[in-house]
Specification:
alpha/beta; Undecaprenyl pyrophosphate synthetase; 6 strands; 45% helix; 13% strand; binds farnesyl diphosphate
């Protein structure tokens, strides 16, 4: 049976986050310059978005450009920004056809004005779509996000809109850039690296982690299906015991009168 057929549609992760890694290594292995790897990586982005939309996953967050990536050579940064704008323009029709809503997390203002304009346009055009929400993390790092949120909290307290005793896990989370999204249930990282690299640190407290040695440009729909299946075969306990989880499941299954 195909891997896709083995996926239980009732137990899909609501939010999948992906650290797309290995573009540079892929290019080097083929004797190309790094940018070729990013170009090929756009194909893997397309396959992954399609796979998530086809399955009916609600949120897909892709780590497309980190705060730390600003330290890369200028030509590589320019190429990545150009690829991003091109990919968005090329895929607009497909986003609309597939009812996909585009959003962004990160320090958007740090991006070149043209990238900001194109992104905001695409976000606006797709804003009423009700299928998959595709979240691009751009100029994003989790420590940046947490510090920004702390600043907002302090400002709210100073303005008298919030009392210090009202600061808790829920009110804090509601002020993060991910406020409207559920936490990821599955995080995929490609290229055989076992790191989180400053990505969604707050949000992945209970997330299942999936690592594959496949380099991002080689990542396919089938690889995505494999990750979902692997996730479905895990028991998620959220700090509880297996017995407690089984009890909760049993209550869920009890017919209600
Ligand atoms: C990591 O590979 C990948 C990136 C920093 C960028 C990902 C960007 C794309 C796939 C293209 C555009 C994105 C969208 C959303 C259309 P790396 O360069 O760190 O690889 P390495 O670790 O092998 O050097």
């Amino acid at each position: 049976m195909e891997i896709k057929e083995q996926i239980n549609r009732e137990k899909l992760p609501g939010h999948v986050a992906v650290i797309m890694d290995g573009n540079g290594r892929w290019a080097r292995k083929q004797g190309f310059v790094r940018v070729k790897g990013h170009e090929k990586g756009v194909g893997a982005v397309k396959a992954t978005v399609e796979a998530a939309a086809e399955l009916g996953i609600r949120y897909l967050t892709l780590f497309a450009f980190s705060t730390e990536n600003w330290n890369r050579p200028k030509y590589e940064i320019d190429a990545l920004m150009k690829l991003l704008v091109q990919a968005i323009n090329n895929e607009m029709e497909s986003l609309m056809e597939n009812n996909i809503r585009l959003t962004v997390i990160g320090d958007l203002q740090a991006l070149p004005p043209k990238s900001q304009r194109e992104l905001l346009k695409a976000i606006g055009t797709t804003s009423n779509n009700t299928g998959l929400t595709l979240v691009l993390a751009l100029s994003y790092s989790s420590r940046w996000e947490i510090v920004e949120t702390c600043r907002k909290v302090v400002e709210e307290v100073q303005k008298g809109n919030m009392k210090p005793e009202e600061i808790d896990v829920h009110s804090f989370a509601s002020m993060l850039t991910t406020t409207d999204m559920p936490d990821p249930e599955l995080l995929i990282r490609t290229s055989g690296e076992y790191r989180i690299s400053n990505f969604l640190l707050w949000q992945i407290a209970y997330t299942e982690l999936y690592f594959t040695s496949t380099l991002w440009p080689d990542f396919t729909k089938e690889e995505f299906h494999k990750a979902i299946l692997d996730y479905q075969n895990r028991e998620r306990r959220f700090g509880l015991t297996s017995e407690q989880i089984n009890q909760v499941e049993a209550t869920k299954k009890k017919p209600t009168k």
